Amino acid sequence: MPSVRPVAASPAVRPGADDGAGRVDTVYRPGGPVDVVATLRPLSRGSGDPAHRVVGSDVWLALRTPEGPASVLLRPVGDTVAISAWGDGAPWAVAHGPDLVGRGDDWDDLDVSAHAFLAQARHRQPGLRLLRTNTVVAMLVPAIMEQKVTSRQAWRAWRYLVQRFGTPAPGPAPEGMVVPPDADTWARIPSWEWHKAGIEPGRSATVMRVVQVAPALERTLTLGRGGELVASRLQSIPGVGPWTAAETAQRAHGDPDSPSVGDYHVPALVGWALTGGPVDDDGMLELLEPWRGHRERVVRLIAGSGFRKPTFGPRMTIQDHRGH
């Protein structure tokens, strides 16, 4: 059975790092393999994300917790994951750290043995897990930024706003890491800064509506690992549709059954991987139906397998409205 064991210290910090006051450590024993880098990959908003850094097999996160900012280091050590955190939010981050690497995520009932591609993908990724951050607004805001634009545009906006309005990551986090703003800070960002970031008024207005009801959104975590009720609560906010709700629930709640309907890439990826040809959203849901309850797990297996769908035609044009 998975277990969490508090320890006085761990060797997870780079030599010479400042282990100042506020450091908290634990060791999580998952009871099976965990690929820390692959499991936490959905939290990365591009290679220049100031809140996410991969160093070898270690992952650093700059988190905004309910108790304040925290730097978190997750490091695989044998059959355990060493978790260290610094900052005001360190105790909360360590208490919930095992959720980041799959505590409570049960793959036992997922049977992909009848599909050769998925069976091989699962065999090659025994350490893949679904993460759960337990922070709804922190996952919802960047998902809103990614609505109806390319990843490159969204990630550029994320970098600009986090670096401009976030706070330096505490402790010995790698240079340049920044903790994203809290709900109150997002609410105070002036309109011209959203414009500089390339976020048009529609998306910034959705963020404003989200942060105004932040406490109610965080309470959806008590509803479990997602599902229709969580989706409906998230979508009750104008501007938050099925895609944004799914992207949020996958990360904040650890929802195993919320494939991203409406995504520009995911349906085609699933179609090519499972049938050798592209499908639309309805086709994707039909293909995933045999694994209802695990549909996001199947999508993650495909995405992590290294499979790439064929590319045809020109790439989407990236529009920059910041100077207008």
From TrEMBL:
Keyword entries, A-Z: DNA damage, DNA repair
Superkingdom, natural source: Bacteria
Disordered: annotated span: 1-25
PANTHER family: DNA GLYCOSYLASE, DNA-3-METHYLADENINE GLYCOSYLASE
Protein name, UniProt field: 3-methyladenine DNA glycosylase/8-oxoguanine DNA glycosylase
